[in-house]
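re: ur msg from earlier - yeah i can do the iron/sulfur cluster complex, just paste it... oh wait u already did. ok heres what im feeding in:
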Amino acid sequence: MKSLIMNKKDLHVIAISGGKDSAALAIYLKDKYPEREFMYLFFDTGEELEETYLYINDLESRLGIKVRREFPAKSFKELLLEHNDFLPSPTQRWCTRKMKVETFLKVMEEFEGYQVYNYVGIRADEDRVGLRPPMDNITTVMPFQEDGITLEDVKRILNDSGLGLPRYYEPVKDEEYDIEYYRSRSGCYFCFYMRQIEWVWLYEKHPDEFKKAMQFEKQGFSWIQDMPLSDLIKPENIDKIKKSYKRTEELKKKQPLKNGTVMQQMSNMSKHDQALDDFEKDKFCSMCIL
Ligand code: SF4
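and the outut:
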């Protein structure tokens, strides 16, 4: 890839996460700037879902592009050991820094002297800023925000291209509870940003990955505070999670409340899911979930 852009002063980078927004951004920018050469980067943590790899392969073949895969210097297992088994969390998010941000900065060292444009797929209907690399020669560009591209537009772009949504969005139907659920983001299969119903999804759809996530829980550290995964899968807890999810979804349909706290209280949403709801409003970054 480097040899193709040696004679250029500018480097245009799109980080591909395996999620819908970064895929739509790649399609959108290739169409908008057909003459522009982009470097597509995927930071592979080695802890991704199979659906993520398939989606990136599909994106490559449909767009006729090559996505450069980059790996962190150390595996998650090694990093966890260095952190004395202290699992990452929304407030102690060492995983993104060690596995993605540092990998990104390492790649950027190859392009010293370039003006780098780092394109990020945060949409116009989102209210967050994302991570911004602290280097003078890297400019963050938000094309979807500049052009007013919303979630509906992203879905249209993906449908029109034939790529569609990642397969983890395909809902699982549970007739007994009359609910449908799915995984809502890309990133590591054990990502602590998952809601409890998404952990249930992982348990049902990817039992081997769920088991691996369980094995990372040691010394009293758990992915969900006060609920190790060995407890989450007890039938009575799965029952509670599915019922709580059903209540929340019904409330959302009936009365899309502006006040999230009221919604949380009325649905008896778990503390874990409440915390994620609050955190999601402004602190999610773009390196993992777009
Ligand atoms: S996807 Fe989640 S667990 Fe993986 S690096 Fe990103 S924030 Fe951490």
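cool cool. The mean pLDDT is 89. ping me if u need the other ligands too
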